[in-house]
Amino acid sequence: MLTLDIEKRIVTGKRKGLVSDFMPAVYYGFKETSTPITVSKSAFKKVLKEAGESSVIVLSGEGKKIEALIHQVDFDPIKGEPRHADFYVIEAGKKGRGCFCAALVFRSAWKTQENYHYGG
Question: Is residue 105 part of a domain?
Fold first, then answer.
């Protein structure tokens, strides 16, 4: 499992007090309160590339190890760099439910066929 080091963020708002390599983030869950944190941007990009948004990662810091999923990432529209991330904390011992959108996958594959035509 991939690990990402975190630090609790005390100052909140529009990037107040952040060094350029760090970015704001937050973790939350069903029984977990929303907690603002900071993560290293370079380490986050590495974890995002390797794990994606569907793999469990470990957030370690403040004497805790928290298993979470990367829930949402906000990217800078010009630079393409991540500027904020949301992590969803997984409940230990609870089975998860997922949604698989087969219709979108099928439609996408169907559109790319050579004999595709629109209409009747």
Answer: no
**Alpha carbon distance 90, 111 (integer Å):** 36
3-state secondary structure of 48: helix
Write out pLDDT tens, residues 44-80: 999 999 988 889 999 999 888 999 999 999 999 999 9
Torsion angles phi and psi, residue 111, rounded to 5 = -65, -30
What is the tally of structural domains in the chain? 1
Residue 10 lies in a domain: yes
**83 within some domain:** yes
Within 8 A by CB and 6+ apart from 61, the residues are 5, 6, 7, 8, 37
Closest C-alpha to 87, from 65, 61, 67, 102: 67
Q: Which domain holds residue 69?
A: 2-95
